[in-house]
Amino acid sequence: MSFNAFPTQQIYRLSTEEGLSQANVNNIVQDPLGYIWVSTEQGLNRFDGLDVVLPDQIKDFLHEQIFHINMVDDTFLFVSTSFDGSYLINVHTLEKKKNIFRPTI
Q: Would 105 be classed as within a structural domain?
């Protein structure tokens, strides 16, 4: 179920009481499927319009300090952690891969 299934719903507040991993939010991004992704100091969160959940495929981000998130295109969510590097998550399949950047000189 995606957030788009509830077009008239309004979010007044989203906090740890509603399920966020932590109250200090670094970024908020909406993907093309309508999910709201929230990065915090203690994890990555996904809001579907009703609940804050993190699918099993990417549960290892639940207690990771997420520094930054951003949609790269209509498929990939870029996730930058403070201590474990960066990842790309396919928002359609939830597959993740470690993102390796090679500096150019």
A: no
